[in-house]
Amino acid sequence: NAGVTQTPKFQVLKTGQSMTLQCAQDMNHEYMSWYRQDPGMGLRLIHYSVGAGITDQGEVPNGYNVSRSTTEDFPLRLLSAAPSQTSVYFCASSSGRDGNSPLHFGNGTRLTVT
Amino acid sequence: SQKIEQNSEALNIQEGKTATLTCNYTNYSPAYLQWYRQDPGRGPVFLLLIRENEKEKRKERLKVTFDTTLKQSLFHITASQPADSATYLCALGRRATDSWGKLQFGAGTQVVVTP
């Protein structure tokens, strides 16, 4: 019963490097999203997808790209890492479209950019 | 701008007592309010959802109230146990069909239950 799986758990990057955070879910959920969590702040939405081939921007999309080629996978790409992107990143999925459906979260990727 | 406030100070409570957390919001008209639990190093886990036309929701030792006039939700943990120690997040969502993924989260309140 895997749910939402994120890899890697930890990552250290140098400024300017790029990388991809992986996210996979096995619940056949249409809706997937990426959040970042910073101390003292609520989770902030980066990008989301309502189905394969469809993505849209959230609250803080700059510096990040996403794609959704399959229902199961929703990778997040950092194009050129900056220290401001040091954060914990969570992927989430949901079976429903609106606030009436709970989100299922992965256990996060802790990213440090030096 | 929209704002969701949860008490940033940790709530320290003795085992067996009731813990009460608040979630206040401004400039927002949510149709749904959700509560999540987050343990250190883990992702949030969904606990309860309450709709705007519901005053109260219960699940085992948990109770949530939702007052759209006061723009406030209260989250109660009765007969608290050390295993309830965690950070609790509230999240607000709209009913609109394009509102998915746009849940607004509070920063959370840490609860520490001591034996």
Describe the protein.
The complex is a heterodimer of chains A (114) and B (115). Chain A has strands at 4-7, 10-13, 19-25, 31-37, 44-51, 54-57, 64-66, 76-78, 87-94, 104-105, 109-113. By secondary structure, chain A is mainly β. In chain A, the strands form 2 sheets. In chain A, strands 2, 4, 5, 6, 9, 10 and 11 form a 7-stranded mixed beta sheet that branches. In chain A, a hairpin with a 2-residue loop joins strand 5 and strand 6. The radius of gyration of chain A is 13 Å and the shape is globular. The mean pLDDT of chain A is 94. In chain B, the strands form 2 sheets. In chain B, strands 2, 4, 5, 9, 10 and 11 form a 6-stranded mixed beta sheet that branches. Chain B has a 5-stranded antiparallel beta sheet with strand order 1-3-8-7-6, with no helix packed on it. Chain B is 0% helix and 54% strand. In chain B, strand 7 (62-67) and strand 8 (72-77) form a beta hairpin. The termini of chain B are far apart. The model of chain B has no long low-confidence stretch (mean pLDDT 92).
